[in-house]
Write a structure and sequence with these properties.
binds copper (II) ion; binds CU-O-CU linkage; alpha+beta; seven-stranded mixed β-sheet
């Protein structure tokens, strides 16, 4: 059973458990012994099912059950046992007799209160899991216990005038509530995450030790040796600007991120590629004639395609005409010097209307990338502030048909490039074709290519090793990710589809049906590619971790890691940018309160990303490609996978690694930008690098 399914079953069991206990209590109070006894039986079975689902879920990892094992389960078991012992025999007796006296007996507090109490306890578990999330900490646990105790006492008092020990029970409840609230709301000093040493506490063991505060005030997350706890494990005090600084370097002078810039001249043999991008609002006309008001670079969506050859110096002058919230340029997947990374409040200030910023970096990586604004990026990118960046190997300009295809939802319609209709292209059979798919949306897209065998030759700009031929395969592309498909033009049409619905590209062999290649009318060419127009929805999804051939990698899961960070993704109440929200959380916290991950230049870093929520999170680290070590405990058996965005689906656990070889201050965030906006982002900082910017919003 998948973890995702187990999480769903557990949710179902938790709701059923709470409903059945409360139902038994209410019907008992209504003096209906038969119904109450039946619901009591359901509650018992549901509680047992819940115990099973929690234990089964534990098999997927401690992250999935931390709050359940430490709090939800003990509370449920204790409350159910009490209810069974106190109410059970009386209920059964009354249900058997069903006379007036036994009806009265089941309406007594000694039956009703324990039944309802078990219901409150079960409900508290649901609140813990869904409102507070991961991890459970003493403060919220105390608060919830106080609420349950208060509800039990209140119910009891409402039913009878004399509650033994009411005074002291109320006092104890109040003390627990105050203590819990103090633990939750008292602020403490911010901290950075140092990452556990792998030979020290096991990652899972460390999790329930630390990370006790989830209020968003205390940034002492899991796997951290928080300074405020007085533990000196080599963590140096972070500056005030904690979320935007790697703190002082070990002995060296701090380096501002603004010093980490690209060169002014290209390396020998390289050319300078100059571009000017001006952000402005404009109405763009799609291929169908449909008009969409958008935020554009140079009046177009996508922005101008940027191309270069490896070794060139790319110089982009960004201007902002009228985007009032400001703009920046971030080079997605391109490991530029940190000062060129375009993160407002961290590496630069956002460019205001009338302002400009010049980016310079050497085109070292070959392949398919994209750029986008990083200021209020959820809105900015959605509105159109993005474009493509493709770097060809030195002296090897693309041959044949090479199409760069950014896919985006613009004004509610799915566009490929600037087209909301299929792009129809003629190609001579035998022509080498390369399709560069880029997902610039917030959610994954599924691509299928029909009518020709092909290979998935590169992912996120990096070539795969020994990619095999694919036929009927669904290619799920994470938000922000890129796939390069390559094939030889067949003598019949080939069709690229998005989400099994939208035709994106139709390639027609030269001379096959010339009329269809001229106009873009989808009706005119509908018949031309029938051979490639079959159903694709049932094509199985390609598992990238098993595709291609293995090859040696500079590090493996067996390597010794200098830093080990775990990010548990969930939803919960947290402060994000100072306001309380039902946030997308990392280790129970939301930006900017998630501890900055601090690394040293040269460190080998392992990142474990766990998704215990119901949403997919395309995880994206700036400035580094990560090597996938494993997914759900299974190591990669195909080609090595170097990604900059990996899609962590509900219930999944990804282990990735990277070498910290690009000093700076970097964002590490979910590329569903609406999730990032709701708190799901943090910083990765190299020790000794500081930021003079204080926006700390990170875009
Ligand atoms: Cu493509 Cu921080 O993003
Ligand atoms: Cu997300």
């Amino acid at each position: 059973m998948t973890t995702d399914l187990l999480m769903a079953l557990d949710l179902l069991a938790s709701v059923l458990t709470a409903a059945a206990w409360v139902g038994a209590g209410v019907t008992a109070a209504a003096r209906r012994p038969r119904t109450a006894a039946a619901l009591f039986a359901v509650a018992l079975v549901a509680s047992l099912a819940r115990v099973w689902s929690i234990l089964a879920l534990a098999g997927a990892g401690w992250w999935f059950v931390q709050e359940k094992i430490t709090f939800v389960l003990p509370l449920l078991v204790a409350a159910s046992a009490a209810a069974t012992a106190l109410a059970g025999p009386r209920l059964l007796r009354a249900a058997r007799r069903a006379d007036a006296a036994s009806r009265d007996a089941v309406g007594a507090p000694v039956v009703v209160v324990p039944l309802l109490g078990a219901g409150y306890a079960a409900a508290a578990g649901i609140v813990q899991t869904f409102l507070i999330g991961y991890p459970a900490d003493p403060g919220t646990v105390l608060l919830l216990l106080a609420v349950v105790a208060g509800a039990v006492l209140g119910t009891w008092r409402a039913m009878s005038a004399r509650v033994p020990g009411l005074r002291s029970a109320t006092a104890a409840t109040a003390v627990a509530a105050v203590l819990g609230a103090a633990l939750v709301f008292l602020p403490s000093a911010p901290a950075t995450a140092e990452g556990s040493a792998p030979e020290g506490a096991a990652t899972m063991g460390a999790m329930d030790m630390d990370g006790m505060d989830m209020d968003g005030m205390d940034t002492d997350g899991m796997d951290t040796d928080g300074m405020d706890m007085g533990a000196d494990m080599g963590v140096r005090p972070a500056s005030q600007d904690h979320s935007a600084s790697g703190g002082p370097s070990a002995g060296g002078t701090p380096r501002p991120v603004t010093d980490l810039r690209g060169p002014a001249t290209p390396p020998p043999g390289g050319a300078v590629r100059r571009f000017e991008l001006t952000a402005r609002m404009a109405t763009v006309t799609l291929s169908s004639g449909r008009k969409v008001s958008a935020w554009t670079f140079n009046g177009q969506v996508p922005g101008p395609p940027l191309t270069a050859e490896q070794g060139d110096l790319i110089e982009v002058r960004l201007r902002n005409a009228d985007i009032t919230s400001g703009v920046t340029l971030h080079w997605h997947g391109y490991d530029v010097p940190s000062g060129e990374d375009g993160v407002p409040g961290l590496t630069q200030d956002a460019v205001p209307p009338g302002g400009e910023f010049v980016y310079r970096f050497v085109a070292e990586q070959v392949g398919t990338y994209w750029y986008h604004t990083h200021e209020v990026s959820d809105i900015g990118v959605r509105m159109g502030l993005y474009g493509t960046l493709v770097v060809a190997p030195k002296g090897a300009a693309p041959t044949g048909l090479d199409l760069t295809l950014p896919v985006h939802t613009l004004g509610g319609v799915l566009v490929t490039g600037d087209r909301d209709q299929p792009l129809v292209k003629q190609a001579a059979p035998g022509t080498p074709v390369r399709l560069r798919l880029i997902n610039t949306d917030n959610t994954p897209h599924r691509f299928t290519l029909a009518g020709t065998p092909y290979r998935l030759v590169a992912v996120d700009g990096t070539d795969l090793n020994g990619p095999g031929t694919l036929g009927e395969a669904g290619l799920r592309l994470a938000a922000g990710g890129r796939y390069d498909l390559a094939f030889t033009m067949p003598s019949s049409p080939a069709v690229l589809k998005i989400d099994d619905r939208t035709d994106s590209v139709r390639l027609v062999p030269e001379g096959a049906s010339p009329t269809t290649t001229q106009g873009a009318s989808p009706t005119a060419d509908a018949g031309a590619v029938a051979a490639a127009d079959g159903q694709t929805a049932d094509w199985p999804e390609l598992d990238l971790t098993r595709y291609g051939a293995p090859a040696p990698t500079p590090y493996t899961s067996g390597s010794r890691f200098d830093r080990d960070f775990t990010l548990v993704l969930d939803r919960g109440l947290a402060l994000t940018n100072g306001r309380p929200a039902y946030a997308h959380t990392v280790n129970g916290l939301a930006f900017p309160n998630i501890p900055t991950e601090v690394v040293r230049d040269g460190d080998l870093v392992r990142l474990t990303v766990v998704n215990r929520g119901r949403d997919t999170h395309p995880w994206h680290l700036h400035g580094h490609r990560v090597l996938v070590l494993s997914r759900n405990g299974h190591s990669v058996t195909g080609s090595p996978l170097w990604l900059d965005t990996f899609d962590v689906r509900p219930g999944e656990v990804w282990e990735v690694a990277f070498r910290a070889d690009n000093p700076g201050l970097w964002m590490n965030h979910c590329h569903n930008l609406s999730h990032a906006d709701l708190g799901m982002m943090l910083h990765l900082a190299y020790q000794g690098v500081t930021s003079p910017f204080h926006g700390a919003h990170g875009g």
